[in-house]
């Protein structure tokens, strides 16, 4: 009998082993050049990312959080001006807004996709006095409704900045890659992303030459001519070692996306067979007490940076503890929505004000989805989830 497999949430070692020779050569190339900050590797990556994302300009920067800060600075965001954004997202979305002194105005999510709900965003915008931008997030690697947000931005004459940190290569309902319909998009190369570096890294993209120019100036302390500063920018540059690694990895990104999609399909099929439905059916409708992620139909593409299940509130933490016992890694993205974070108390949002975000924070759990998972590992995860949820739902404790 084979041993029970261990299944980490993410293991990057097999990916590195598969492309080690090319990565090591790219690193050696940078070391030999002794050009570490900006330079040809960054320019090469910028060209390649712009092409991959079907946009005109890409500007490398220090990380995905600073990318949002730079984008807000580039549109001339001023302290006190408002930015409508989701509360159910990674901290950086709202954190970046606050870092430039602007005011996050929270919108609720669509409980089917977990992306910001256009109607809720429009209502939030309607409450603003000095709205500057709308900041949707393509959460977990699935496109937010950019047609609706772009239309809202046009109607209100404000910028739309896409936080695409988790979504490089994702495509919307028309099959258009995310990042091109907003005024600008921001990206993260944090190691756990589908395209992840060997440290921090980020990018801003835009179809506006003027904004690309502003971004390039802002990432070097607001200077176009050395030691001459027209603006107060920041040290927000991407380093050459990261760019060199990312350029190698970009060549494999499509096959990694395909691996994640294959794994997601394996889970979808296993959960469907167990009687579960996707997130279009609310848990309150009953049936098997698990919802797997709804995926917009082709030509849309979900890149599954995360594969996130939903189970009833009382069950989520118990399921997580059980999977940990079974040596299966999981994570909760995100346990506390931003409007309920201590640091944002000053904004005065109440508990209960964003019901879909608050419910998702209590009911969602991410499973391992990285491309190199074996069939045995996937089967083990699916079996453990199904058996546990089935058992607990049967006894109806905490459900
Ligand atoms: C939605 C979202 N926005 C922004 C960021 C920030 O990116 P970074 O960690 O590169 O600063 C992340 C990173 O996890 C993210 O998931």
Description:
The protein contains 12 helices and 13 strands. With about 400 residues, the protein is α/β, with parallel strands linked by helices. The chain folds into 2 domains: about 15-250, Aspartate Aminotransferase, domain 2 (3-Layer(aba) Sandwich), CATH 3.40.640.10; about 255-395, Aspartate Aminotransferase, domain 1 (Alpha-Beta Complex). The strands form 4 sheets. It has a 7-stranded mixed β-sheet with strand order 1-7-6-5-4-2-3, with helices on both faces. The chain has a two-stranded antiparallel sheet with strand order 8-9. Strand 4, helix 6 (about 145-155) and strand 5 (about 160-165) form a beta-alpha-beta unit. The mean pLDDT is about 95. It binds pyridoxal-5'-phosphate. Pyridoxal-5'-phosphate binds near residues 63, 90, 166 and 200.
Task: Provide a compact summary of the structure.
By secondary structure, the chain is of the alpha/beta class. The chain has two domains: about 15-250, Type I PLP-dependent aspartate aminotransferase-like (Major domain) (Aspartate Aminotransferase, domain 2); about 255-395, Aspartate Aminotransferase, domain 1 (Alpha-Beta Complex), CATH 3.90.1150.10.
Distance between termini? 35 Å
Output mean pLDDT.
97
Strand order in the largest sheet = 1-7-6-5-4-2-3
CATH class of the largest domain: Alpha Beta
Oligomer: single chain
Helix share, percent: 25-40%
What is the string of helix and strand elements?
HHEHEHEHEHEEEHEEHHEEEHHEH
Uncertain segments? none
Number of helices: 12
Largest sheet: 7 strands, mixed
Shape label: globular
């Amino acid at each position: 009998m084979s041993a029970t497999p261990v299944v980490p949430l993410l293991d990057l070692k097999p990916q590195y082993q598969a492309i080690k020779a090319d990565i090591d050569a790219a690193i050696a190339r940078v070391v030999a050049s002794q050009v570490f900050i900006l330079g040809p590797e960054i320019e090469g990556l910028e060209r390649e990312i712009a092409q991959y994302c079907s946009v005109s300009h890409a500007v490398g920067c220090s990380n995905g959080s600073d990318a949002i800060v730079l984008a807000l600075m580039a549109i001339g965001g001023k302290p006190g001006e408002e930015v409508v954004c989701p509360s159910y997202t990674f901290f950086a979305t709202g954190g970046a807004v606050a870092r430039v002194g602007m005011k996050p105005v929270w919108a609720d999510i669509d409980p089917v996709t977990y992306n910001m709900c256009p109607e809720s965003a429009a209502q939030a915008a309607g409450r603003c006095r000095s709205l500057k931008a709308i900041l949707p997030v393509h959460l977990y690697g699935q496109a937010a409704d950019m047609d609706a947000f772009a239309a809202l931005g046009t109607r209100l004459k404000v910028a739309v900045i896409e936080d695409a940190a988790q979504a490089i290569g994702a495509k919307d309902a028309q099959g258009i890659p995310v990042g091109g319909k907003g005024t600008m998009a921001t990206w993260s190369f944090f190691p756990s992303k589908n395209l992840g570096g060997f440290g921090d890294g980020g990018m801003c993209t835009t179809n506006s030459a003027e904004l690309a120019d502003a971004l390039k100036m802002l990432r070097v302390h607001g200077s176009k001519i050395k030691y001459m500063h027209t603006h107060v920018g920041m040290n927000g540059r991407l380093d050459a070692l990261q760019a060199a690694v990312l350029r190698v990895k970009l060549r494999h990104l499509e096959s990694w996306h395909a691996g994640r999609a294959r794994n997601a399909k394996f889970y979808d099929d296993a959960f469907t067979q167990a009687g579960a439905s996707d997130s279009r059916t609310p848990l309150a409708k009953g049936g098997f007490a698990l919802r797997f992620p709804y995926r917009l139909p082709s030509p849309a593409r979900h890149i599954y940076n995360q594969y996130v299940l939903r189970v009833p509130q009382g069950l989520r933490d118990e399921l997580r503890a059980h999977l940990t016992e079974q040596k299966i890694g999981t994570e909760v993205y995100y346990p506390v929505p931003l409007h309920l974070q201590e640091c944002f108390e000053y904004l005065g949002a109440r508990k209960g004000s964003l019901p879909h975000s608050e419910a998702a924070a209590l009911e969602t759990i991410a499973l391992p989805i990285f491309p190199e998972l074996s069939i045995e590992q996937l089967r083990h995860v699916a079996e453990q989830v199904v058996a546990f949820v089935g058992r607990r739902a049967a006894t109806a404790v905490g459900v």
